[in-house]
Amino acid sequence: MFEFRIVLKSAALKRPAVDCLWSRSFPVFGGNGANLSCTTRFNPTALDPGRKTLHMRAFYSICKRLIMYLIIFDVDGTLVDSQDTIFHGLQVGFEAVGLPMPDRKTALSIVGRSLEEAFADLVGGGHLDKVPAMADAYRQSKISRRKQGLEVDPLYPGAKEAIERFHARDDFLLGVATGKAMRGVRHMQETHDLHGRFVTIQTADTSPSKPHPDMIERALSETGADRSRTVMIGDTGFDIAMARTAGVHAVGVTWGYHDHSRLAEEGADKIIHAFDQLDQALNEILKYDKETA
Asked: pTM to 2 decimals?
């Protein structure tokens, strides 16, 4: 067993390498068939925003022989149970423009879409002019309630354990693709001590709404991951459709906002009912135990 270290050095780095967010060892295969270990250290947030993708690509091109798997999580309905706080925000939005609030099931059916698209789906074509005001009221309510400590969405049972378990693997990279804004993701990370777990975070701030594949395309571009070794995990048909359009695998979870039949209809590779089933589902899709054996 050999070990070598790769540290990306760049003038764009604002802090020393010792401050890197993550340092991981990945299994690779040498030309003579020997098993090698590559320890990597890199902090993408230490780069100037305009140069982040360029340097991440350079970093991963150096490590292109690594066998890595990119696991992308949705947030609302997959990692966190946010139905009460989302429903409250939707109520605020409808009240702000004097429109009647849909029933709870209908209202929550749009979770997974970006905010403006979600409100547009709910109000229909006759009130699209009111959508910007509704979305603004929703956002302001969220910001205010977070400051008051009222926006605390619990993780689903087993979510934290799964994240920590996968983060500890040498061959896994974790990511997020969500209709939330980045500030919502940061709030989740702070609330549940999840800083440094995700190497790529894609949000509604920079991408079109799901099921457009842009979030996954950006995650692939930032990490250099192979589509055949990438899995999207989500609770809605929007997540599964996004994965299918992007050409990556998809695991549906039934504890969120869309039921088993919707996830199956959109083409999920696997559908699970609890986080303790996720390891087996991923291995059956990716066959990583055989690939790295």
From this structure: 0.75
